[in-house]
Amino acid sequence: MANATGCSSIYGGNLPTTPWAKNAEGRGPAWSNSLFEDNAEFGLGMRLAADLHTRLARQRLTELREDVGSGLADEILGAEQLRESQLGSQHERIERLLRRLDELADGPHAAAVADLRSVADHLVRRSVWIVGGDGWAYDIGSAGLDHVLASGRDVNVLVMDTEVYSNTGGQSSKATPLAAVAKFASAGKTAAKKDLALQAIAYGSVYVARVAMGADPQQTLRAFREAEAYDGPSLIIAYSHCIAHGIDMSKGLDQQKRAVTSGHWPLVRYDPTLRSGGDNPFMLDSPRPTIPLRDYVYGELRYRALRNAAPEEAERLLELAQDAADQRWATYEEMATRSAAEFMPDARRTASGGRRTSWT
To answer: What angle is formed at CA 353 by the lines to CA 348 and CA 358, rounded to 5 degrees?
Structure first.
């Protein structure tokens, strides 16, 4: 796990306590904190290193196939590793492999056996998650993030979107919505929020989801599971309520729901594998807005502050923000009715939907 410097790295690595844990087998995430501006590249480096070790492990296992047992070797090399149960089965095979390597340690292929043992754990698929906030993903690290998403590599990106630079004092970011007040936008943000989801969807090869746990926890869980299983880059943009919003933080999930029901935060998923199978890859998971945008925004001090200081300007910007929300919804709704052929194909995949190369 590559974690950009920010709020998530503070609560993620604030020793002696940590939210990360290991399971009964002693396995858990390997967490590391990167600089704010290069976290995407840092995470891609983790992916490249893991892929190199995996290629070496598969090569050595193939060379020692008859020594370790052709049946076991073939099971390991051909194993599906998308779901938790499949990963568990692969762990069991690797344990059997390690016991067999112990028996071969003093044999004629001792060097190759030792080499395989050093990377055998990489025969279990490594999941790489790149985590950070909107200041990193939308602004300072946006070029690196774009590069990583365009690479086609099997990385997962989680953007915890607070719509403001939270850790450095609440400055406006490109994720800050129209009409919101933040540092460097004290008179209200006059530019619309950047649509990072649509930018990633344009590649045709990136799994994309916009989630809000307070509005639909099941959709959130489904998006994470699909992103984890997707063989390629994935991007999850998660609505993250923040003290900088000026809300009662104990009611944060309720505010998330209002963000969705007002149309400010449509819930979407884009799965390129559906397009390869002839289906529409764009799924609009939330219903049409049922409350006006003002019912959502004026529950937060970042919007009320402008209404209190300059009510006419606040009303003008709110009307524009409502127009922007309506236009975004119309765009998403139209995309949800398209045919598969109206979306960019994933050139990495064959006509049958499979990858041209393996995940290694």
So the answer is: 55
